[in-house]
Amino acid sequence: MDTEVKLYGRVFITTKIKALTGLHIGGSNTDLEIGGLDKAVIRNPLTKRPYIPGSSLRGKMRSQMEKLLGLPQNRPIGQVTIHICKTKEKFQENGGCKVCTVFGVPAEMDYDNLTRLVVRDAELTDASAKAMEDAHTDLLYGELKTEVAIDRVTSAATPRTIERVPAGAEFGPAELVFGIYESADFERIKVVTDALQLVEDDYIGGSGSRGSGKVKFEDIHLYVRNEADYSQRKEYDKSFESVQSMAQEFPEILKWIKSNVKTG
Fold first, then answer.
1. Distant-in-sequence, close-in-space partners of 177: CB < 8 Å, separation ≥ 6
2. Dihedral in degrees, nearest 10, Cα atoms 130, 135, 139, 142
3. How far apart are CA 101 and CA 131, in angstroms?
4. pLDDT tens-digit profile of 62-101?
5. Distance CA 230, CA 170 (A)
6. How far, in Å, CA of 159 to CA of 169, rounded?
7. Tally of CB atoms within 10 A around 229
8. Could you tell me the residue ranges of all domains in the chain?
9. Per-residue pLDDT reduced to its tens digit, 4-50
């Protein structure tokens, strides 16, 4: 049986991501020959600059929303466990599961869902790269941080050294793209703003409980494209310096989106 899919438009959110504390998103150590370095950050293989993978930001947004909504973690994906509605009935309860609708479900599930949210990688900005080059950081675009793991039985201390992108570094612009496939999707956009605030209040990457990974979203812009003239973008008439200021204006933003993206 054929399924009709209708895209009415897309909402684009662009933002800079500023590291307020050192940031560690793990990569491969194969390109580094630094004695004692246990964990390197992920880097663009062409520029050697660190970046924030869209999958890391999107995964953190999802996990935080799952916790906020009290959803069961019931589906192992690699080394993590996420929430997935296991049946069509569960997915459709209360107007549809916000997490599964926005962030998607595995293709093998027995119910249809179009993933609404796409999150792009965020590269280190040229200005931040230049600042770190001038400062001669411990590593190229990175600092070394030594942590000590304590054996709970023997009290033996085992030091380990991780690489972090220093506090103050900026990435972006990161781009989040939200697809509108039905009228109910307009209200679901709030999941994105809530999830961004949740990430700010938590952390990105590793060693977050030990101080790493606190970030802030700044210089936030919105625009839309609609089916009537998809090649033309329509910009919201102001930008936002924080997620909170954008969230405070969400009712007005939503009205503007609805006026520019028609679902019938």
1. 10, 11, 12, 13, 117, 118, 119, 120
2. -70
3. 41
4. 999 999 999 999 988 888 899 999 999 999 998 899 999 9
5. 31
6. 26
7. 9
8. 9-260
9. 889 999 999 999 999 999 999 986 544 444 445 567 899 999 999 99
